[in-house]
Design a protein that fits this description.
- 24% of the residues lie in helices and 35% in strands.
- It is α+β, with helices and mostly antiparallel strands.
- It has one domain.
Length: 86
């Protein structure tokens, strides 16, 4: 389902998406165009737990969740992880 339609159907909800359709904007930025709705919730903790469960089990899907404030133009930026190794 297209992201604009999803946002219209669930304007003030947390939404867990899978099977993402993306448009590359740069080497580290992507625009989410569409995806499958895996879960809709009003509870941030519930959606975060579902996101972590999908990632833990790697059910063959890349998942992403949106916040109620996510705009109709859903841009995601991949930020490299950095840390201190000891």
């Amino acid at each position: 389902m297209e992201w604009a339609k999803i946002k219209t159907l669930y304007p003030d909800k947390f939404i867990l998406l899978g099977n993402l359709v993306e448009e590359s904007l740069s080497s580290n930025q992507f625009k989410i165009l569409a995806g499958d709705i895996l879960m809709v919730s009003e509870d941030a903790k519930e959606i975060r737990n579902a996101y972590q469960e999908y990632n833990r089990n790697r059910q063959g899907k890349e998942v992403l969740y949106s916040l109620p404030s996510t705009p109709e133009e859903f841009i995601v930026e991949n930020v490299p992880l950095s840390g201190i190794l000891q």
